[in-house]
Amino acid sequence: MRKILYTLSAALLLVACGGGATKTETTTETTTSSESKLSDNPDYTKGLALIAGSDCLTCHKVAEKNIGPAYQDVAAKYENTDDNIEMLAGKIIKGGSGNWGAIPMTAHANLSQEDAEAMVKYILLLKK
Question: Among 14, 65, 85, 115, which lies 20 to 30 A Cα-Cα from 41?
């Protein structure tokens, strides 16, 4: 029974977090003055573009938990330091589990360290 549940959970996770190339999701959010200031930040615009072009939004949302944590929750947990940016970028590339629950984040091995760091910089700018 455990094997069946594990297999079904793994299959569900792969379907939920995999690919995403055929599905495009758009969201409309109210722009606040702080968001308009952020949109002038090159770290914000580059990271947002990289995330929008990836499968990240399949499992994550900006302000609410989905399959993975909300970006604002990640920003609240980690200080915006060079060490944290490098560490979190490594987690995006290597994947893993345990920091936010039992559901693992898929690895993004085809992502460069530079692009992963740009994504992290964007996420950390979302701190409330």
Answer: 65
Q: What angle do CA 119, 46, 117 make, to 5 degrees?
A: 30
| Mean pLDDT on 48-61 | 96
Mean pLDDT of the chain: 82
Question: How is domain 35-124 classified at the CATH fold level?
Answer: Cytochrome Bc1 Complex; Chain D, domain 2 (1.10.760)
- pLDDT above 70 (res 125): yes
